[in-house]
Specification:
453 residues; 73% helix; 16 helices; mainly alpha
């Protein structure tokens, strides 16, 4: 990074300028547009799916819970499956396939009316959704190269903007409230997959993706290997033997992925913990609930790019993990304290908690993704990123029951324990990453960065 980069007002182009000229050039620009369109459809689905399943397909609350729970579990398999396939086939074609797969399954949602028929259809939809997100991440890694953190920030801004637009459009349909309006919203999501697929088709396959064998290990000549293994000795004839490596046998990387699950709890705290805690345990006005999402969406769009500049590289990414733990600890403390005051005090404290959990999300979204890339051997990156992508999927399935059944059931003490646990695990995660990357001084950081590229 140039001296003084990222400092001051004139340190670089703004968000709109970087969206027009992102790292990765034309391909990245088209992919960002495709991602925004895809997330617009996701916003339509997220805002309308439960009501559609309730009023159009007439499922009970218990059936909807089982349906979405099983779909969430199916989504966990999407990340490693996408990573494995991406080591053998072009990412561009696989991503188009994911969009078309979800187009088909969403069309089936419109014609299936029974629980038994909807269960596999929705499960495959969620599997395709998680696979698509992993492929988008891998595309960014290849297209943006060393500037992947900046691309990740732009993608987060584009995704959140699209999601907000989708939720806003869904509000119109939900206000109408007819069966036809619900079906139009589902069709709108299906249309987003068609447009996204066409946009991805207009891109070119990112460089360096042709022959990345998903299970091949090694970081290249002189590169660090998972777990610190030494490079294989050459065989007669001067050709080094091919050492096979799998993320499933790499204990260090599996430890990172496992610890990354609680590092994603900000998602459930924002979507589940904050609204339910406000309604059930405080006297704050219920009208504040939509404000949590507004705060989150606006801040992510506005701040993600500047935050990403402060989390590039091994040293900054590992520091961001610690900052995530601190922010989550303070956020949980605010949630515990929200029960002590009146309506307006509780409302102000909960809004502050929404701000803190959003800042934590900004830290996590950059550091988690950057470390997942840095810790993976370059020629096995697709398979490794597929495993790393499971963390978010697992959290989405386990996080809400953890908050509602354990944390919130324990009252304010539950939030304090959760905040302490996440902060402690953040320290463990940082130490493990520092040790694996060999970070000890600026010189060793530079060497580690070159070794893992």
């Amino acid at each position: 990074m140039r001296r003084g980069a990222g400092r001051g007002k004139g340190s670089g182009p703004g968000l709109l300028a970087q969206l027009r000229h992102p790292p990765g050039g034309r391909n990245a620009r088209i992919m960002l547009l495709a991602l925004a369109v895809d997330r617009t459809g996701s916003g339509l689905w997220a805002a309308s799916s439960v009501l559609y399943l309730t009023f159009v397909t007439h499922l009970s609350a218990q059936q909807i819970g089982v349906l979405l729970g099983v779909a969430g579990v199916a989504g966990i398999a999407g990340s490693p499956l996408a990573g494995r396939l991406a080591g053998r086939f072009p990412v561009r074609g696989l991503l188009i396939g994911c969009h078309l797969l979800r187009l088909v399954t969403l069309g089936l949602v419109l014609v299936c009316t029974g629980f038994d028929a909807l269960l596999p259809v929705v499960a495959v939809t969620y599997l395709g959704d998680r696979a698509a997100k992993t492929l988008e991440m891998l595309f960014a890694t290849r297209a943006a190269g060393e500037r992947r953190a900046a691309y990740q920030a732009l993608s987060r801004s584009a995704a959140n903007a699209g999601y907000g637009v989708g939720a806003g459009l869904a509000a119109i349909g939900l206000a109408v409230g007819t069966t036809g309006a619900y079906r139009v919203l589902i069709l709108g999501n299906a249309l987003s997959f068609v447009v996204a697929a066409v946009l991805v088709w207009r891109t070119g396959e990112p460089a360096g993706s042709a022959v990345e064998v998903a299970r091949s290990g090694g970081a290249g000549a002189g590169g660090a290997r998972p777990g610190g293994a030494a490079p294989a000795a050459p065989v007669p004839g001067g050709r080094a033997p091919v050492r096979r490596s799998s993320p499933w046998r790499d204990r260090g990387y599996l430890k990172f992925a496992l610890l990354d699950i609680p590092m994603n709890l900000d998602d459930s705290v924002l979507a589940v913990g904050l609204p339910l805690w406000l309604v059930d345990r405080t006297s704050a006005p219920h009208a504040l609930v939509p404000a949590f999402l507004v705060i989150n969406t606006v801040l992510v769009v506005v701040l993600q790019l500047s935050v990403s500049k402060r989390a590039e590289g091994p040293r900054r990414a590992t520091r961001a993990v610690l900052l995530y733990g601190v922010l989550m600890f303070v956020c949980c403390g605010f949630l515990a304290a929200a029960t002590l005051g009146g309506a307006w005090v509780a409302g102000a404290v909960l809004l502050a908690a929404a701000l803190l959990v959003t800042l934590a999300e900004l830290m996590r979204s950059v550091s988690s993704w950057e470390l997942a890339v840095l810790l993976a051997p370059p020629d096995a990156r697709a398979a490794y990123l597929g495993v790393a992508g499971m963390s978010q999927s697992i959290q989405k399935s386990a996080g809400p029951p953890l908050l509602t059944g354990v944390v919130m059931a324990a009252g304010p003490v539950g939030w304090l324990v959760l905040g302490t646990a996440v902060a402690g695990l953040a320290v463990v995660q940082r130490r493990a990453c520092v040790r694996r990357l060999g970070i000890g001084s600026p010189r060793s950081e530079e060497a580690a960065t070159h070794a893992i590229r």
